[in-house]
Amino acid sequence: MDIIRKSDATRLKANLPDYDQFCAGFHWEDAERLLDGLSGGKLNIAFEAIDRHVIHGRGDRTAIRWISKDGARRDFSYVELQRETNRFANVLNGLGIARGDRVYSLLGRVPELYVAALGTLKCGAVFCPMFSAFGPEPVKARMEIGGARVLVTSHSLYKKKVAPWRKELKGLDAILLIDAGDEVESDMHDLPSLMAKAATEFPVAATDPEDMALLHFTSGTTGRPKGAVHVHRAVVAHHLTGKLALDLHPDDVFWCTADPGWVTGTSYGIISPLTNGATMIVDEAEFDAGRWYGILESEKVNVWYTAPTAIRMLMKAGAALAKGYDLSRLRFMASVGEPLNPEAVIWSNRTFGMPFHDNWWQTETGGIMIANYASMDVKPGSMGKPLPGIVAGIVEKHDGTVREASRPMTIGQLALKPGWPSMMRAYLHEEERYRKCFVDGWYLSGDLAMRDEDGYFWFVGRDDDVIKSAGHLIGPFEVESALMEHPAVAEAAVIGIPDETIGEVVKAFVALKPGHEGNDDLMLDLLGHARKRLGPAVAPKEIAFRNNLPKTRSGKIMRRLLKARELGLPEGDISTLESDEK
Ligand code: ATP
Ligand code: MG
Predict the structure, then answer these.
(1) Check: complex ipTM more than 0.95
(2) Which residue is closest in CA terms to ligand 1's atom 15?
(3) The model scores a pTM over 0.80
(4) Where are the domains of the chain?
(5) Is 327 touching ligand 1 by the criterion CB < 6 Å?
(6) SS3 state of residue 95
(7) Nearest protein CA to atom 18 of ligand 1, as residue
(8) Ligand 1 centroid vs 525 CA: distance in angstroms?
(9) Does 359 contact ligand 1 (Cβ within 6 A)?
């Protein structure tokens, strides 16, 4: 696969030093000094995101540009955001919410969500965002685990998703409805009326850097979601990784398309762009290729952060659509959440004149760990290299201990040396599950990967998803990427099916691009293409066509569900399941 070289001009525009220069002599304490902090060694995420800019005379810049479903725009300057979040913090105070109390949101991407998130942090309470599309059960389970005291939601979401079990949840003191009007019941409040009465001044809580700030549930791709605990110190990593891995500069117009219900939508959809003084775009609507290009054009987006599932849908919509828009303001594009197929990197380079830069991280790591930097040549299909201050390794397990692989391109667990600021501090109420992530001084990610001789990391598959066939270890990503090269394929998911003679055989599920029909001829063509690309040992033996693939709310393919169904096993936890059409 050809390397995408960065020209000197690109490097210069990114204004970033060389990768090796970054890493040499890096200390997290230096990164901490990029922020202001509060007196006495205290630190508060919301202060760094908002108030700091106002103090430094940058309050009139646009912090958030919100685009409603019907296309209306609403801007919040940093100083306006300061006032609104102060009001919200005062509202919480008025309800008796204290440091460490849990405040949940169940909202679409409306301005109130962003105000609630930052206002909660200002008040020293803990914020836990949930996808508004979750059903009643996942909402209840998350609120129970975290011990919710306050829920911010809308009238209709409340009725559908909370009212059915409301009486069963003890400790939930207040429900703040963003649109209650006169229809308020006893423990419910109309948020706009409370906000209107609240003062616009608030002394930001002097939180300790190690105080809990955010509770984020994992995506539930591999099983029951875990509640990862993050602290205020995480802001140091959010800030620096935004600069380095997303090339964020003050005054950039930045669009992270993720919903805050997924960790990406909080770390990089709220905190990082604001600490870096950018203008962040929030689009209330769901994915639509034309709408997205329209936003990139009209808002003059410079930096764009999205996910492979969206990129594959853009590819499905075709390059011609993209060419119809003026995207000349785009300077940097990045992707996270799933492996980014080489085909997608090459397609984006051809279509936009620059590639999507893949980066890797997890809910647990709180921020980007491995990335393709603006100043670095891109090897399509690789996640890039570890950020400064991050020690990543490929480790192999031997009788309960782990050892770092010495040879390049060895497949092993992707592991990290703990010590960066945004590392989770716990899985809430699941000490054993948390403890098991650490062996011999390494945090084990649960992903399998390889490192090449240049230090680039390559994703192989989730530990649970890797297929063992006739002595080969097959990563689903490699097979899916090969299928993606076929012009008819929009998406692919690959699983292993138990087989008596060779251990497992590879089966692929494929969704097609418009204009293609899943018939026997296409199946034979695809099988032939895969065999030619991968060899008979690795290529799928069987292909099933589907309208789409089962995915989590954060857009991740749920291979375990395809496998469970195939084997007639229980489906397991599907609380985060989204698209799923045969
Ligand atoms: P759960 O832990 O509940 O099964 P999840 O792991 O999908 O869900 P997240 O924390 O949202 O929850 O996702 C992190 C995972 O997403 C990573 O461990 C990895 O498997 C995958 N991932 C994220 N970015 C990339 C990437 N750039 N390349 C490959 N995989 C990625
Ligand atoms: Mg995970």
Answers:
(1) yes
(2) 362
(3) yes
(4) 8-451, 464-579
(5) no
(6) coil
(7) 362
(8) 31
(9) yes
